[in-house]
Specification:
- With 378 residues, the chain is an alpha+beta fold.
- The protein has helices spanning 45-53, 95-105, 110-124, 139-153, 169-186, 197-203, 221-226, 231-236, 296-299, 336-344, and strands spanning 6-15, 19-29, 34-38, 60-65, 68-69, 80-83, 157-161, 190-194, 206-211, 214-219, 243-252, 255-260, 263-266, 272-273, 277-283, 288-290, 304-313, 318-324, 327-333, 350-355, 360-363, 374-375.
- The strands form 5 sheets. The chain has a 6-stranded mixed sheet with strand order 6-7-8-3-9-10, with helices on both faces. A 5-stranded antiparallel sheet has the order 13-12-11-15-21.
- α2 (95-105) packs across α3 (110-124).
- The structure holds adenosine-5'-diphosphate (ADP) and magnesium ion.
- Magnesium ion binds at residues 45-46.
Length: 378
């Protein structure tokens, strides 16, 4: 019998009878899966995690862990390990005592405790720190001890609530790599909460995007990037964010055109929505390509002219802020040829751009902004 390690059904959480924070959450997590729950601040991520942990009672719905309903069980009876943003280490205890605390509470034999603590310390590279107190550790080291404390528990389920958000940028990317490596070694089923879409993209087997307490979409990182279900997911996943241009699609005979303000793009050579009308065209920064003066034919036809506002060189790539048909557009490229055209450009220059035909998304203009299916015109 196949069984989900974590199963959440129709979960609702209402604070004080009026703040509806989680709305009909259905979620299943497989054994050893690393699931990342991502969404803007205040969307309910911590509330969901705390509900799974039992630190927060739910208003309705069910939670089961490894086939056992735990909705009404105390946190200690759920067999989970949780790593918080602020680490929550015991300040007066050494690292060794912090790591072994849970095991000592459960009255495990001393040999066994020592073995588990030493194994976890070796795995995390913190053997030299075992006799120090948290105040004698750097932020990154404290973070590792907090994870170590979860590792020694050998729990059914690991929960992480923005564990890297207190680290500086460099340490954050290093720790991200270590976390991925640790997950490969331990294989613990994990729910990892972050508001950082880069962490979500790089760590997740599967991403769940939450907004205002509602699951927007879930799937493999690249599936969400390539096929976002709606405007919200499209704008949340990917950095710099996707460009959006509201406009009107016209289909007549074998020809399709999209008007953004007074500018018109011929889209007869790519899939477009079945029906003409108002849409929001979504296109990622790397899918708008600046054309060089030479070799233009080989690179694609000119779709638009953009006015350069600002160039941001990043070394390996450049970002350009431009005005396209009256809207702000972010364009990025790592292609050496385009990089040169972009970094040579000045504010006020007019540049020709082409839109990557494989990377155009159409969203409806309703409040949900759903992505619309497209088909070839002929
Ligand atoms: N104890 C509480 N009482 C009332 N409202 C709360 C409580 N805890 C959180 N909230 C509200 O629930 C919403 C979601 O909070 P939270 O789950 O912490 O968001 P996130 O972790 O995604 O930033 C927020 O609007 C927050 O103000
Ligand atoms: Mg939170």
């Amino acid at each position: 019998m196949s069984q989900h390690q974590l199963e959440i059904t129709k979960l609702n959480k209402i604070y004080d009878k009026k703040v509806h924070v989680l709305k009909d959450i259905d979620l299943e997590i497989n054994e050893k899966e690393f699931l990342v729950l991502v969404g803007p601040s205040g969307c309910g991520k911590s509330t969901l995690l705390r509900s799974i942990a039992g630190l927060e009672g739910v208003t309705s719905g069910d939670i089961s862990i490894a086939g056992r309903t735990v909705t009404d069980l105390a946190p200690a009876d759920r067999d989970i390990a949780m790593v918080f943003q602020d680490y929550a280490l015991y300040p007066h205890m050494t690292v060794r005592d912090n790591l072994s605390f849970g095991l000592r509470m459960r009255k495990l034999p001393k040999d066994e405790i020592d073995e588990q603590v030493n194994t976890a310390a070796a795995m995390l590279g913190i053997e030299e720190l075992l006799d120090r107190r948290p105040s004698q550790l750097s932020g990154g080291q404290r973070q590792r001890v907090a994870i170590g404390r979860a590792v020694v528990r050998r729990a059914q389920l690991f929960l992480f609530d923005e564990p890297l958000s207190n680290l500086d940028a460099k340490l954050r990317s290093q720790t991200r790599i270590e976390l991925a490596d640790l997950h490969r070694k331990v294989g613990a089923t994990s729910v990892y909460v972050t508001h950082d879409q880069v962490e979500a993209m790089t760590l997740a087997d599967r991403i769940v995007v939450l907004n205002k307490g509602v699951i927007q979409q879930q799937g493999a990182p690249m599936d969400l990037y390539r096929e976002p279900a709606n405007c919200f997911v499209a704008s949340f996943i990917g950095s710099p964010t996707m460009n959006f241009f509201p406009g009107k699609l016209t289909r007549t005979g074998g020809k399709a055109t999209f008007c953004i303000g007074n500018d018109e793009i011929d889209l007869s050579d790519c899939p477009v929505p079945e029906a003409g009308g108002d849409y929001v065209l979504g296109i990622r920064p790397e899918a708008i390509k600046v054309l060089a003066k030479q070799g233009r034919e080989a690179e694609g036809k000119v779709d638009m002219k953009v006015t350069v506002n600002l160039i941001e060189p990043h070394g390996h790539e450049a970002h350009m802020v431009a005005t396209l048909a009256g809207h702000q557009a972010i364009i990025r490229s790592a292609n050496p040829h385009r990089l040169k055209v972009m970094t040579d450009a000045h504010r006020g220059d007019l540049l020709d751009v082409t839109f990557d035909r494989e990377a155009m998304h159409f969203f409806d203009t309703s409040s949900e902004g759903l992505r619309v299916k497209t088909t070839w015109i002929s």
